[in-house]
């Protein structure tokens, strides 16, 4: 089953990468851009037949490796 | 307006980051994980009133900075 894990910084956590992209956009003339935040999407296949098991496994993987739960939130979707 | 730019590697392009995550998942005991691919999501605000203009501006920013069109595809959504 195909699983998609969205990993994003928690609200209120500074996003240095987003800040850097924002500055770069401004220097390229895109003054109208603001509040740039960067997130990750991890697509992977899980060897299981049940969507529920795939979603649970995706959450386990997120807690174990894909997300740093001190500063990041994650959301898991089964996409196929 | 809030714009979301999805940036992902083109099909067929090797994803070293995905491979590294896959190996790490296997070493943590998640043998059932495979085909790991990592994408980026860039959320930003664009000072404009029209969704169409925001989407077009998002695409311009993607072409100028956010995506490397040699190896990456991008998709733009207006989310609010």
TrEMBL record, chains A, B:
Keywords: ATP-binding, Cytoplasm, Ligase, Nucleotide-binding, Purine biosynthesis. Its EC number is 6.3.5.3. It comes from the Bacteria. It is found in: Cytoplasm. Pathway: Purine metabolism; IMP biosynthesis via de novo pathway; 5-amino-1-(5-phospho-D-ribosyl)imidazole from N(2)-formyl-N(1)-(5-phospho-D-ribosyl)glycinamide: step 1/2. It holds the Pfam family PurS. It catalyses: N(2)-formyl-N(1)-(5-phospho-beta-D-ribosyl)glycinamide + L-glutamine + ATP + H2O = 2-formamido-N(1)-(5-O-phospho-beta-D-ribosyl)acetamidine + L-glutamate + ADP + phosphate + H(+). InterPro entries: PurS (IPR003850), PurS-like_sf (IPR036604). Belongs to the PurS family. Part of the FGAM synthase complex composed of 1 PurL, 1 PurQ and 2 PurS subunits. Part of the phosphoribosylformylglycinamidine synthase complex involved in the purines biosynthetic pathway. Catalyzes the ATP-dependent conversion of formylglycinamide ribonucleotide (FGAR) and glutamine to yield formylglycinamidine ribonucleotide (FGAM) and glutamate. The FGAM synthase complex is composed of three subunits. PurQ produces an ammonia molecule by converting glutamine to glutamate. PurL transfers the ammonia molecule to FGAR to form FGAM in an ATP-dependent manner. HAMAP family: PurS (MF_01926). This is Phosphoribosylformylglycinamidine synthase subunit PurS. It comes from Parasaccharibacter apium.
